[in-house]
Amino acid sequence: MGGPRFEPVRTVRAYERIVEQIEQAVESGKLRPGERLPSERELMGQFSVSRSTVREALRVLQARGLLRSRPGDPNGAEVLPFSPATLHKSMTTLARVDELSLGELVQFRMVLDGSANLLAARLHTPEELAEMDAAVEAMRAAVQVGYDTFSAADVAFHDAVARASRNKLIQVCNDVVRSIVLNLIADKIADSDDREALMLESIRHHEEVLEAVRAGDGPRAARLARRKMYDYYVGYVPEEEREALRGLLE
Amino acid sequence: MGGPRFEPVRTVRAYERIVEQIEQAVESGKLRPGERLPSERELMGQFSVSRSTVREALRVLQARGLLRSRPGDPNGAEVLPFSPATLHKSMTTLARVDELSLGELVQFRMVLDGSANLLAARLHTPEELAEMDAAVEAMRAAVQVGYDTFSAADVAFHDAVARASRNKLIQVCNDVVRSIVLNLIADKIADSDDREALMLESIRHHEEVLEAVRAGDGPRAARLARRKMYDYYVGYVPEEEREALRGLLE
DNA sequence: CTAGTGCACTGGTCTGACCAGTAGGCTGCA
DNA sequence: TGCAGCCTACTGGTCAGACCAGTGCACTAG
Question: Are strands B78-79 and A78-79 parallel, antiparallel or unpaired?
Answer without folding.
Answer: unpaired
